[in-house]
Design brief:
Shape: flat
Number of helices: 53
Structural class: alpha/beta
Strand order of the largest sheet: 49-48-47-46-45-44-43-50
Largest sheet: 8 strands, parallel
Radius of gyration: 42 Å
Bound molecules: nicotinamide-adenine-dinucleotide
């Protein structure tokens, strides 16, 4: 039997194929089987929908099929796939196709798509191509699918590169819309679909829109109350709500069907359905999948409506209606909706980005963007999308506005302002409480009235509808009957203060709802609302017997109000805070159980005009309030209100807002032009109407006011006069406007001191913000001084040109602050009004009116995209590597020591300002101060600073006294310089400074404790310097450097750097990096080789430092996990944590002492798997800035932080790099999703290195990652990309990742992330999978049987886990064996030693410049060049020598003045080259055979080499050498003049000390070194043995072959062991 079913049919493309109704399953089965005969019906659905509805379909189809003749009876199959967008993929399509093929489906198959848009699009596309196209039927189950995706025949799947990119037009045979499916649909999905419904009505049908506007509650009830017994299947069983729902759906579908029929392939008209989609899609691209399509389109519709409004073709009334309507369906309407702002991805919603995404839109023609522009509700501006400039879109999207100063082009201006907020709110309440229908005209469409209307609807107090295209609001009053909303439903008032005050008393009138369990009405608001006072009103109502509870803070919202009615009688109210309390009780009083006598207590009553306004309006609605008088006829603050009901007048015309009118009038005043405001005059109900007469006139304007109009003409620009005292008690809201005018009131006739004293406005402290404070703070930004008074403020005006420009005004989300400062902005250049949307409260289209009606241009400013250009507190903007470096610091901080070392490292001259001072003034600093005093000294010192900066702008190290920061002038010069070049603060522990100063006398004593001086100067140092060099010498480093002076032999022969040499290393790293001479970046990262960093996960890194070399074996950088650091007092803290900056700086400094590897500075947030609080952006960026100040090379910044902050940081990064990172711990992130691509794009845009970390749940996740990485790599100029999957399943990705793979080490206590591997493990794995082939290395020479090199290199290879082997190849000559070795494909490199260093050269393809200069090769490296392999010859001998000199030179010698080389063989050539490179000015050369010595002199024409005839006697009486290098065999030397060998006299060792190197390997202690040790000398001579040089050059060789630092400690230990054995 066919079940009786009523369906509405809609025709599309000439066929009535859309059938709509309720509970259609039997109807569907019957229709399909009878009209689409087939051998096989296949229903495809997703698991969600299937769980609710599949069985019903199965049984219905089975039943219907069973009635068919048995022979050739059709099959019914079903296939269920996972829900969600990811199914709409190539894989998803393939799985369905495979199912169909497996079940031998043929061309006659009919496919049924049961589900949302995902199922519809996917299954439709399968049907379009399966067997070249089969018939299919759409059975949409989401509202979106019903009204949109199922209609029109568009089918598609997504690809990783974008949504819906592959598809076809394929029309279904039927579309069955069964609205009862919506009963199981989640509410959010319903709202999602409503966005499309509202959109369609908005472009096409105003009646439909009006129905949607007013019927949201019924529509929700239709889907929320389950229909029993198939109610709705027939018309007779259909509820009113069901009828409404169906009519809305059918209406929407009909529009779409019509458009599709007219324009099936989407050429013109069909574009109209894209209203809201141009911007909406861009938003969706950023926020998907967190926000749904309809939600993004909802925001897009409002923004596009605003575009239309700003073009002047669409009115605010329309924007307001659209906003309210979307809100009624729980849809977001702005990008500041909390559902959006709480998403990390919302940070990526910058104007630039959105515009960029919009570039790619099907509607665009070329670069021109197109938007569907509304003309009015129900009609578009053109019958197609309209061209819109980027400038307009940017303006609308921007969160801030910049007003361009000028004379209003529309002068004389004539305009009306929006309806009064006070009157709108009052009249809404009066009409709602009244009986009968009232038509309201000129109602303000604002947040406040919106909130008031929604609340009254929630309370079932009235119903609202619109006429005249929304110009008129029809209120059907409820006569005072109000009901408690259902339990759980709170009345949300945002920050609408008036609504909150009024509704508090209204809620006391509420009666319990018969059909609800709710016991009380709850009203609540946003965070600011929850701070605004309501106490006095609640106290008065409670005293009258109403039960009201504070649900959070005492005295503020949220409130819970019992529905017991208002008792009435005598009510006492303190009325000195807000007149709105008074109005609230007055307005509700007629509905109290007894007539009310309201007595205002507490002395002064605030804002009497507003009370008078309320009373006047109540009179219009038929209620007479009597204000009582005393015996003398004096008015009392006592009011009597009768018990009655309001009688609604037929119509009410709302006066324009007088507070709003103050802004255009003030613009006329400040710009010297004329403005007329219609609809506000002397008869106005509003106090602020007096502003023109009582304030502007007194400031020198000409004011003409009629009963209904006000005209103001300002004096010529700059001539406003300061009026002195003004009482603004009657017009408190207008005080902000008066204040900005007062700021520039200095014209003739001004009160002396240009003062304007505004009083009577104490209540303004508790408005949207503390407005008095707000004005004081924001005016100060313009350089305006003010003074706060008890009940107001004083403002001291300045001439306009003296005001500061380019001010960014914070608006506190307060409309009046924003509008008042836009008045000032009309004469002060560059003013930015942050949070421009706050004007929506009372004048939503203020910015449009400012531009279109007044004629002052407004531009959009994207604060997220602007980079502050102020002096950088860290890093430097400059990239000029030649800019001189200024160093400064406290006396005793070591700035001369560090400065001179820096000078030597950069090979720049060093200038000490003290010395310069003494030379210039012919007197020392101490005497100067003694004679002329401190003030004169500071002045002279500042002059010297200026002189130095001008005279030596580049190529110098300028060291300054610490006191330089004491004078503001000097600080300004330093800050200015910091914009161009490095200004380095040398920091040392204050205790050490004190200790040091005890010994030093060259400078005048401070005359106060050093610690006090330090504390005073510290902030100045921070302010003036862009870098900080930490020269910690004491406590912290003692533990690390404790063994610094241990002799070499006692450490297994290994050389241990002294403190000086580690400082020297750090100085050269730091200054090399910050100047850009030698940025300390990881070369393997840029070179696209494999690179690694070690994650240090310690709470304190110092205990790990003795092992740092082992820990960092093989890696390219160390990562300091700052979020895991814990200062000693917080060691136990497991929660999210912000380490103190000083502690972080110490940790970096300590690490620096022990490793010169670049540091990666990471503060991982909790949500991304770390321990840094997610919400403390400020603290995070303070730390990042600190890192840049400390010269840290890489800073890891999560892209969830705000783009503005990241850009600011990046602007200061100098030579450091920013790693922009994103970590997803959930395991939900799919590497082939658009989400990841978006993350990559924003990270790549903001950073130098991109890091994206996901989580693998299976091996395949790593392939997806690899595929994504390959795609990104293939782009032009790709950035280094760290792509990792966490988890054990993700280990594969750690092996394959090539840039900066984070690694751990067996000695590190905890891994930074699950699945992390060690460097050695990764090398092993790479080898096993064929990514790291075996290589052979050799040493060529003879005799070499005892060479240390195999031990050296093989130990290193082993420590790094490299599959390499180093062998001895001893041959008589450079012959076939060597040729064969170097030609073999697994040749990794070779060391070349005596006697082949020259003979090898003909076999090589290229030489390094060093090898060329020295004329010898000791290292062969196979290299790839232009696709083929070449052999490259280098020389590391000189590097070994240089390193030994650099690190072993005593600290007393900053730069050697002379050096001696003994011997003139091949090694001497390397020695000369090393000394030359170190910049040693004089090189003495001694050799027994003078001719070979002369040959060397000739070979190095640029080196200053002087021949020595007798050791100990230096040519031209030159300085004694502080570096001595012997290259002759030890056996050939002697310390005894009577023996054969070369005599070495002890006089070669000067008393100043130095470094002596003997290149001979055996014995360890050669005669030369023995002599050095035994010669008494004032300062120390450090000895370097031949093996040490061998080691140093071997380390370089190792680096050249492997690209990795050699693990020196283990290597040297093994070599010494072998040597000593
Ligand atoms: N072809 C077109 O013209 C067109 C137009 C608009 C959107 N689309 C596409 O539509 C897709 C989005 O469609 P959607 O919003 O329907 O999403 P959807 O298909 O993913 O459905 C949303 C969720 O609701 C569940 N669901 C569906 N019906 C249900 C029901 N009755 N009861 C309980 N749960 C139910 C689904 O399982 C899913 O989890 C997108 O892929 C979009 O590109 C296509």
């Amino acid at each position: 039997m066919v079940v009786a079913t009523d369906v509405d049919k809609v025709s599309i493309l000439g066929k009535e194929s859309i059938h709509c109704g309720f509970h259609l399953i039997p109807y569907i089965a019957n229709t399909v089987i009878t009209t689409l005969p087939s051998s096989t019906y296949v229903l495809i659905t997703d698991t969600n929908v299937g769980s609710f509805h599949l069985s019903a379909f199965e049984s219905e189809f089975d039943q219907t099929v069973s009635k068919l003749p048995e022979k050739g009876r059709s099959r019914f199959l079903s296939f269920v796939i996972p829900p969600g967008e990811t199914s709409k993929s190539r894989e998803g399509k393939a799985s369905i196709e495979d199912f169909l093929l497996l079940h031998r489906c043929t061309r006659d198959t009919v496919i049924l798509a049961l589900g949302g848009g995902v199922i519809g699009d996917l299954v439709g596309f399968v049907a379009a191509t399966f067997m070249r196209g089969v018939r299919f039927v759409q059975i949409p189950t989401t509202l979106l699918a019903m009204v949109d995706s199922s209609v029109g025949g568009k089918t598609a799947i997504d690809t990783p590169l974008g949504k819906n990119l592959i598809g076809a037009f394929w029309q279904p045979e039927y579309i069955f819309i069964d609205a009862s499916f919506l009963e199981t649909l989640p509410a959010r999905e319903f709202s999602n679909g409503m966005a499309e419904v509202v959109k369609t009505a908005a472009i096409w049908n105003e009646d439909e829109f009006t129905a949607l506007e007013s019927r949201s509650a019924s529509l929700f009830s239709a889907i929320q109350t389950p229909s029993t017994n198939f109610a709705g299947r027939t018309k007779t069983t259909r509820s009113a709500a069901q009828k409404l729902l169906l009519s809305i759906i059918v209406g929407s579908i009909s529009v779409k069907a019509h458009i599709v029929t007219v324009d099936e392939r989407e050429t013109g008209l069909r574009n109209l359905v894209n209203f809201g989609h141009t911007i909406g899609h861009a938003i969706e691209a950023v926020l998907t999948p967190s926000m749904l399509h309809g939600e993004c389109v909802s925001v897009g519709m409002i923004l596009e409506a605003e575009v239309a409004r700003s073009m002047g073709v669409f009115g605010q009334v329309g924007v307001g209606r659209l906003t309210r309507c979307l809100k009624a369906y729980n849809l977001p309407v702005s990008l500041t909706d909390p559902r959006i702002t709480t998403l990390p991805a919302s940070k990526l919603l910058t104007v630039e980005r959105l515009l960029d995404i919009m570039k790619v839109d099907k509607k665009n023609s070329g670069t021109q963007k197109k938007i569907v522009i509304l003309n009015r509700i129900g009609k578009t501006y053109e019958e197609k999308a309209t061209n819109v400039s980027d400038e307009i879109i940017a303006k609308i999207l921007s969160d801030a506005a910049r007003v361009v100063p000028g004379i209003p082009t529309k002068n004389p201006v004539r305009m009306a302002t929006p309806g009064s907020k006070s009157i709108s709110n009052r009249v809404l309440l009066l009409a709602a409480l009244g009986s009968g229908t009232c038509r309201l005209k000129n109602l303000l469409h604002s947040d406040d009235t919106q909130v008031m209307m929604s609340a009254l609807m929630d309370l079932k107090g009235a119903s609202f509808s619109w006429e005249d295209g929304g110009e008129t609001l029809v209120v059907k009053g409820g006569g005072g009957s109000l009901f408690v909303p259902p339990s759980g439903k709170e009345i949300y008032l945002g920050n609408a203060g008036t609504a909150a005050r009024f509704l508090t008393t209204v809620c006391t009138l509420v009666q319990p709802s018969a059909d609800s369990s709710a016991k009380a009405t709850v009203i609540t608001g946003n965070a600011r609302m929850k701070q605004r006072p309501i106490g006095p009103l609640v106290t008065a109502l409670r005293a009258n017997g109403t039960v009201i509870d504070y649900l959070e803070g005492e005295g503020c919202l949220p409130l819970s109000i019992a529905p017991d009615g208002l008792k009435g009688g005598r009510i006492q109210l303190a009325a000195s805070v807000s007149s709105q309390y008074v109005s609230s009780i007055l307005l509700c009083a007629p509905y109290a159980a007894e007539p009310v006598t309201l007595e205002l207590t507490g002395g002064q009553v605030i804002s009497q005009p507003y009370i008078d306004m309320t009373i006047a309006m109540m009179r219009t609605f038929g209620v007479e309030v009597v204000r009582e008088k005393d015996a003398d006829g004096k008015l009392l603050d006592v009011y009597s209100i009768p018990k009655t009901t309001y009688k609604n007048p037929e119509a009410y015309n709302i006066e324009s807002d007088a507070s709003s009118a103050t802004y255009p009038l003030a613009i006329a005043a400040i710009t010297g032009t004329t403005c007329t405001i219609e609809n506000i005059g002397s008869e106005s109900l509003q106090g602020d109407a007096r502003f023109a007469k009582e304030v502007l006139e007194r400031m020198g304007c000409v004011v003409v006011q009629t009963a209904t109009e006000t005209t103001v003409t300002g004096p010529p620009k700059g001539q406003l006069k300061a009026p002195g005292y003004i009482d603004m008690e009657p017009m408190t809201d207008a005080f902000l406007t008066a204040s900005v005018l007062a700021a520039v009131s200095t014209g003739p006739g001004s009160v002396e001191g240009n003062v304007t004293r505004i009083q009577g406005i104490a209540n303004q402290r508790v408005k949207e913000c503390n407005r008095i404070q707000a004005m004081i703070d924001q005016l100060a930004k313009f350089g305006i001084e003010t003074k706060e008074l008890d009940d107001g403020l004083e403002i001291y005006g300045k001439p306009i040109p003296e005001l500061k420009e380019n001010v960014s005004v914070h608006c506190y989300d307060d409309h009046r602050v924003a509008m008042a400062f836009s008045v000032l902005a009309s004469v002060v250049r560059g003013t930015i009004l942050e949070e421009k949307r706050c004007v929506e409260k009372t004048w939503p289209n203020w910015w449009d009116d400012l531009e279109n009606k007044i004629g002052i241009k407004v531009e959009g400013v994207d604060l997220a995209g602007t980079v502050e250009s102020t002096a950088s507190p860290s890093g430097t903007v400059s990239k000029d590597p030649s800019a001189s470096v200024v160093v400064l610091g406290m006396r005793g901080s070591g700035k001369s020591f560090i400065g001179e070392m820096a000078a030597s490292a950069l090979a720049w001259p060093f200038i000490d300002a003290d010395v310069y001072f003494a030379e210039k003034h012919q007197t020392g600093v101490r005497e100067f101060v003694h004679k002329h005093g401190w003030t004169a000294f500071r002045a002279a010192e500042t002059e010297i600073l200026k002189e130095l900066l001008v005279t030596y702008p580049s190529g110098h190290i300028l060291s300054l006294g610490g006191g330089i920061v004491e004078t503001p002038e000097a600080r300004e010069h330093l800050k200015e310089y910091a914009k161009k070049g490095p200004v380095v603060h040398i920091v040392r522990e204050i205790d050490e400074v004190v200790k040091y100063l005890g010994e030093e006398t060259a400078r005048p004593a401070y005359g106060e404790p050093v610690t006090d001086v330090f504390r005073r100067r510290e902030p100045w140092f921070t302010e003036c310097c862009n870098y900080e060099f930490v020269n910690y010498t004491g406590v912290l480093t003692a533990s690390i450097n404790g063994y610094a002076s241990t002799p070499v032999e006692q450490n297994g022969g290994d050389y241990i750097p002294s403190r000086t040499s580690s400082v020297r290393g750090e100085v050269s790293r730091f200054f090399g990096h910050i100047t850009g001479h030698k940025p300390n970046l990881a070369p393997n990262l840029a070179a696209d080789k494999r690179s690694y960093f070690l994650s240090l996960t310690y709470p304190d890194v110092t205990p790990a430092l003795p092992y740092i070399e082992e820990l960092t074996t093989g890696v390219d950088a160390v990562e300091l996990r700052v979020d895991l650091l814990r200062s000693p007092k917080d060691v136990g803290s497991l929660n999210s944590y912000i380490p103190p900056a000083a502690y972080v700086a110490e940790q970096v400094a300590a690490l620096r002492k022990k490793t010169s590897l670049p540091i990666v500075f990471t503060a991982r947030t909790v949500s991304q798997g770390g321990s840094f609080p997610d919400t403390d952006e400020k603290a995070a960026f303070e730390l990042f800035n600190l890192a840049l100040r400390l010269g840290v090379e890489y800073v890891d910044v999560e892209i969830s932080w705000s783009e503005k902050q990241i850009k600011n940081l990046s602007a200061r990064k100098g030579n450091s790099q920013i790693i922009t990172s994103w970590h997803d711990w959930s395991g939900k992130m799919k590497w082939n999703s658009i989400e990841v691509k978006d993350k990559y794009d924003s990270a790549a845009r903001l950073g130098d290195v991109v890091k994206i970390v996901g989580k693998a749940t299976c091996l395949e996740d790593n392939f997806a990652l690899y595929e994504f990485v390959s795609r990104m790599r293939a782009r032009p100029n790709p950035k280094p990309f760290i792509a990792i999957n966490m988890g054990i399943e993700g280990q594969m990705s750690r092996i394959l990742n090539s840039s900066f793979s984070p690694v751990t080490h067996p000695l590190v206590p905890s891994r930074a992330a699950p699945g992390q591997l060690s460097f050695v493990q990764i090398q092993t794995a790479l080898h096993l999978i064929g990514q790291l082939p075996t290589r052979r290395f050799f040493i060529f020479g003879h005799p070499i049987a005892h060479s240390m090199s195999p031990t050296l290199h093989n130990t290193g290879f082993e420590a790094l886990g490299l599959p390499y082997k180093y062998e001895v190849l001893e041959t008589a000559d450079v012959g076939e064996e060597i040729k064969f070795a170097i030609a073999s494909p697994d040749f990794g490199g070779a060391s070349v030693t005596i006697p082949f260093k020259l003979d090898i050269i003909p076999l090589l393809d290229a030489l390094s410049p060093e090898a060329e200069a020295i004329g010898a090769v000791n290292t062969v490296i196979p290299r790839a060049r232009n696709g083929s392999h070449i052999l490259y010859g280098d020389n590391t001998d000189w590097l070994g020598i240089r390193e030994c000199i650099r690190t072993r030179l005593p600290s007393s010698i900053l730069k050697p003045e002379a050096a001696l080389i003994i011997g003139a063989g091949g090694t001497s050539r390397a020695a000369i080259y090393a000394l030359q490179n170190l910049g040693v000015p004089r090189i003495y050369l001694f050799n027994r055979t003078r001719s070979s010595a002369q040959a060397l002199v000739d070979a190095f024409p640029n080196a200053h080499i002087e021949l020595v005839d007798e050791l100990g006697k230096w040519p031209d009486n030159g300085p004694a050498p502080s570096v001595i290098i012997s290259t002759v065999p030890a056996s050939a030397t002697s310390t005894d003049s009577s023996t054969e060998g070369l005599y070495l006299p002890s006089t070669i060792f000067a008393p100043e000390g130095g470094v002596v190197i003997d290149m001979a390997y055996k014995p360890a202690m050669t005669p030369l070194l023995t002599l050095a040790a035994s010669t008494p000398s004032r300062k120390k001579w450090n000895s370097v043995k031949g093996v040490e040089v061998l080691l140093e050059q071997g380390y370089r060789q190792f680096e050249l072959w492997t690209g990795r630092q050699c693990p020196k400690k283990v290597v040297s230990q093994k070599v010494w062991e072998k040597y000593n054995a």
